[in-house]
Amino acid sequence: MSTQDLVPSPVGPVDVEQAEAALVERYPRLVRIAYLVLPPTMGRNRRVLTAHALVQRALPRRRVPGPAVPEPRRPEDAVDPGYAYVRGEVLRQALVAGLPLRRFAVPRRAQLPPLLPQVWGLRLFPRAGGAEELALDQLLSRLSGPARAAYVLRGLERQGDAEVLRVLAAAGAGDPEAALAELAALEDEEPALPEPAPPAPAPHGGERPERVAEQAGPGRAPAAPGSPARTGPPPAPAAPAAGPRRSGAALLESAEFDPCTLQARPGDLLRRRQHGRAALVGVAALLVCGALLGLPGDGWGRNGAAAPSYARNPAAEAALDPAKVKRVAPAVWPGAVRRDFSVWPARGELAGDAPLLRRALAVWARPGGAVESSATPGTPVGPPMGPPQLLFAGRVDAARVVLFHDGLRLVRYAEPVEGRAGAALDFARTDGAEGPDAAAVVVTRAAGNVRYLTAPWVTGASVRDLLMPGKEPWALGRDARGVTDAVPSPALAKECARWNTLQVKDDSGGRLLGDLGELLPARLLWGPPGGPVDATGREARESWSRTACQLTTVFGQGVRSVRSWRFARQTLPEGAGRAAWVCTRAETWRGTGTRVLAQFLPPDRKAPAALAARAQDAPACGTREPRVLAGALWQAPGGGWYVLAAGGPDVASVEVKGAVAARAEGPVLAAKAAAGARAELSATLEDGRRMPALR
Length: 695
Known about the structure:
Blueprint: H1 16-25, H2 27-37, H3 44-57, H4 81-97, E1 122-126, H5 131-140, H6 145-155, H7 161-170, H8 176-189, E2 215-216, E3 219-223, H9 248-252, E4 262-266, H10 269-293, H11 314-319, H12 354-365, E5 372-375, E6 389-396, E7 399-405, E8 409-416, E9 424-429, E10 440-446, E11 449-454, E12 460-465, E13 474-475, E14 487-488, E15 500-506, E16 509-514, E17 522-526, E18 533-534, H13 538-547, E19 559-571, E20 578-588, E21 595-601, E22 610-616, E23 629-635, E24 641-647, E25 651-658, E26 662-665, E27 668-673, E28 679-685, E29 690-692
Parallel strand pairs: 5-9, 17-19
Antiparallel strand pairs: 1-4, 2-3, 3-23, 6-7, 7-8, 8-9, 10-11, 11-14, 12-13, 12-15, 15-16, 16-17, 17-18, 19-20, 20-21, 21-22, 23-24, 24-27, 25-26, 25-28, 28-29
């Protein structure tokens, strides 16, 4: 198993329609997977109903980030992101359903009997199989939930061990390696357990563990140190062993484990009659007790001294009163000490529409089930604590949009102009937003386009394509309210063919903002942690043009700013030219959840950057720890393989151990290596401290 097999490649976001199509098309297979992973102690009737319920609940409510999957070897082996996402949700819920109920813990939804589907008066179970199916079911009942999931992924989905580990980890399994070890131990102990079929191109969306190095510049794109390079056509699947016994895949696909082809039998008729009588007696007792409790007396009511919701509570009533909404005059911001959302004037032709504001405030306080609601991570979604500030209320495209600010959050309410269905409520955290952080807000997204509402101090707006660094930005029109014209958004695009950013200008200079799928666009910066600047210069644009497509990994993560920094340059072996190393750090509004990417830029300026390492919640490349060290396995144009490593200016020496042993004075290293060599990198700083590499 190689490290590269466990490093997935990002795919685009998954739409609800895409996930629904995958669920409907492969519904029988998904239900079979859930049925096999659920614990047999449930009983076959409940397993059948629970399997159907888990699959039907796997459909997302809105667009979600796509699952990470290994790159396909061939175009025909490409993974359907919709099926990969739905299958992961089914596995996650099935593993949760198999957990034991704790005495003092709140049960999770998957651990409870399903609300739907329900069958009254009948017991359903799959058709009975033969002796082999019965033996397999008994042996699988001895496995834990993750081990059963591993067996199903290997046998039914034709996945290798590397893919099984990745899928189990993504589904929430605590120790995927232990699951594979448990499965291997049972196979050794019980020879009757059929071996699953070898990995092969799965017709139902299963991924492949093999990966092929991509071309980058004059050589091949680097992979993480220790990743084997595999070339040539994919290996043909091994033929199943001869003999009368069927393989594990054949048994798993038998009617014994098919919860969509069912038999029906009546339940316990006498017990049902007794339960019906007991239910009638219980209802009568409840009616009598309710009447007695409703009689006058000196006891406390249901809510004690609390008033009913939003009744006789001055603060709650003021928060929902459109007449008490705060409105800032247009003459306030020029003389204000701070330039933030608190000095934005109330704009829009519907700012005086009291019924619209009343609906928006009511939905904010008590959103109904038909409201599409979203919030960036770490943003509270509760009702307003007092009268909020109105930023905007107007008609944009085919919707009426209202923007509020309560000092901590930005809240967007939208309703269609025609009809009463489709209201939306979005929350974004804005604490500490000032200057460039409060320069623009997303008003609408529709048909692949986005419109912004710019701050009153913005004097000009334009659009710059990050993928075309030499092209001048083109002007973006704005109306009298400050709303821009529609511009194609990368957050809504399916491919990274262009990456439009919003460039705003004020009296202090130009700012570059990128739409990452949230209410507030993220600020794009360039430079070391101690003094970054807005990424509007030529050097910054050239670097961003090769790394912009990696921003898809931070969509919808509550990102406040993204800073890129070229921390090293390196002369490549065999005269291949001079490459660069770039560290990209995405900071969030909540402080946690930062994402760090180390990227290798080959000499060819038209070649995109290759991802060398990534880290979550790591201090590297930040203000607290500005140092960084990364490495990659690289193939020269002449065919030779090398371990490349680079660190920041404070690195005194770099050392590599493992299959390759080498040491270099200074911040860069290039050592001869074999294809697929495994290596561990470390560096010694100028003050004598040791520093590991990003992984």
